[in-house]
Amino acid sequence: MKVHTETIELKTNGFPDIIDLSHQINDVLSKSGVINGIMTIFVPGSTAGITTIEYEPGLLKDLPALCERLAPRGVTYQHDEKWHDGNGYSHLLAALFKPSLQVPVLNSKLTLGTWQQVALVDFDNRPRHRKLIIQVMGVEE
Amino acid sequence: MKVHTETIELKTNGFPDIIDLSHQINDVLSKSGVINGIMTIFVPGSTAGITTIEYEPGLLKDLPALCERLAPRGVTYQHDEKWHDGNGYSHLLAALFKPSLQVPVLNSKLTLGTWQQVALVDFDNRPRHRKLIIQVMGVEE
Amino acid sequence: MKVHTETIELKTNGFPDIIDLSHQINDVLSKSGVINGIMTIFVPGSTAGITTIEYEPGLLKDLPALCERLAPRGVTYQHDEKWHDGNGYSHLLAALFKPSLQVPVLNSKLTLGTWQQVALVDFDNRPRHRKLIIQVMGVEE
């Protein structure tokens, strides 16, 4: 049984930036040597989330529109009244989407569907420098 | 330490189909032999999710109504403009609910509440053949 | 490889009660002896969830307002028509936020951001006595 953890650094743009993590997660899985187990993808910080989506141009426009419907930017947020950073909606969306995702590893492959990509969604209202934690836990035989 | 993974096949109906997975997860837990650890329930694909709910007839009507409020079917989605499969809202709901759930295993039992069932929610707009990944990782003593 | 699981008891107030779990999770991590691995925080029951949020007074008001927008209390829920406990919206919010959260453990520390706290959100419409399951799985060296 083995735990293999890597920290990945990424730059993101303004609200919302949706980044396909396929390359990063497959690279970490390969390095881990794990054959059966679980991968965790985690984003530290309170204005971003991790989920899966079919990473295609239509949904890259639809997901921001969904976010606007769930936590509109035009609403007054008490967070902004207090801290004046204007990203109250980013915090709420991050709490809703949550920062952690787990994907099983079976026979050295992630069990994702063909049209299902793991994505970082950065809800913040400005470019950010993000660190991601990608961890694989499992057996090597 | 042991990793036990099973693939379960299921047929689902149209939007949204909510399926109680209690039987399947207890069966996999029993076969795994794991006494303390974690179970992961994962659905491959980008139009379904896994969550917990009190599986009773009232909420089986309320959850679809919630979905309709979050991602209405009458809205124009860029996904549908491009691919013409009419399930843009299904993709958005799946990204929001997410495809993975973890439940701790303690003394050979899942730590779910009495009225808390693990459910597959298929948000797609047509019947689907789904595969679920149910994995138990932990110790056998 | 080790699995360390603790059950924590908590009292919560009415809708919604947002409780910072920082003290509890750090305490369990310390007792576990795990250096690299994963922590799972899980709430049994179908009217509460676990997420992360910047635990500050503004967002403690904004998150309830988000919940009211997602699943308004004034709407008729079939759950309430059948069971008359008036917490249909609590069940829906719990299904959306989900009861489980995973945070990687790296070099004996949780990989949370500085302004990112793990929180229990109790969506129920009355005070509850809650049990939380906090589990750490990983290696001790």
What report would you give on this structure?
The structure is a homotrimer of 141-residue chains. The longest helix of chain A is centred in the middle third of the chain and has 14 residues, at 57-70. Chain A has a single domain (2-140), classed as Sandwich (Jelly Rolls), CATH 2.60.120.460. Chain A has helices at residues 22-32, 57-70, 78-83, 88-97, and strands at 2-12, 17-20, 36-42, 48-53, 100-106, 109-110, 117-122, 128-139. In chain A, 55% of the residues are buried. Chain A is an alpha+beta fold. In chain A, β5 (100-106) and β6 (109-110) form a beta hairpin. The model of chain A has no long low-confidence stretch (mean pLDDT 97). Helix content of chain A is 29%, strand content 39%. In chain A, strands 1-8-3-5-6 form a five-stranded antiparallel beta sheet, covered by helices on one side. Chain A has a three-stranded antiparallel beta sheet with strand order 2-7-4. Chains A and B meet through β3, β4, α2, β5 and β8 of A and β1, β3, α3, α4 and β8 of B.
